[in-house]
Amino acid sequence: MKLVFSVFTLSxxxxxxxxxxxxxxxxxxxxxxxxxxxxxxxxxxHQGALFGAGEEGxxxxxxxxxxxxxxxxxxxxMDSVNPVSQExxxxxxxxxxxxxxxxxxxxxxxxxxxxxxxxxxxxxxxIDLFYERVQPEEMATSVMTQPYSIAKIPQSELPVTFIxxx
Length: 166
Fold this sequence. Notes:
Distance between the termini: 63 Å
Number of strands: 8
Number of domains: 2
Shape: globular
Low-confidence stretches: 1-32
Structural class: alpha+beta
Largest sheet: 4 strands, mixed
Strand order of the largest sheet: 1-5-6-8
Strand content: 25-35%
Order of helices and strands: HEEEHEEEEE
Mean pLDDT: 81
C-alpha cells in the first residue's frame, strides 16, 4: 500500500512540475511580447493655445499629419486668426522621415488649460500615443482659449491610437 501511495505521489509531483514549467514558459512569452514595444523619439514642435474664440474652425481632435501638403493646410487654418505658427520650434519638417501628431482640446471659457503629448510607443501593428489634458489649478484669465500640443515622431504607415493619460 505504501508503494502504491509513493508511486502516486511521485507521479503527481512529476505532472505538477511539467505544468508549472508550461506556465512559466507562457509568462515569459507574454513578457517578451510586452517588451516588443519600442519607445519612439518624440519631439515637441509647440504647445500653446489659440485665442481666436474658435474662429479658426479647429474642432477638439487628435490628428496625424503625414505629408507636407496636409501640414501647410493645417498651418494656414491655425494661423487664420493669429499667426501662432511663427512660434513653432521646428520650421523645417522632413515628411520623408517624420510625421506630425496634433492634439487639440475643445474651446475653453478661460485660460490655464493645457495639452501635452507625453509618449509614443511603437508596436509591430500600431503606434500608441499618450497625451494629457491639464486643467488650471488656480484662478485663470477670463479669455477663450483652445489648448493644443504638436509633436513629431518618426514617419510610419502604422495606425496611431491616441490614449488620454488620466
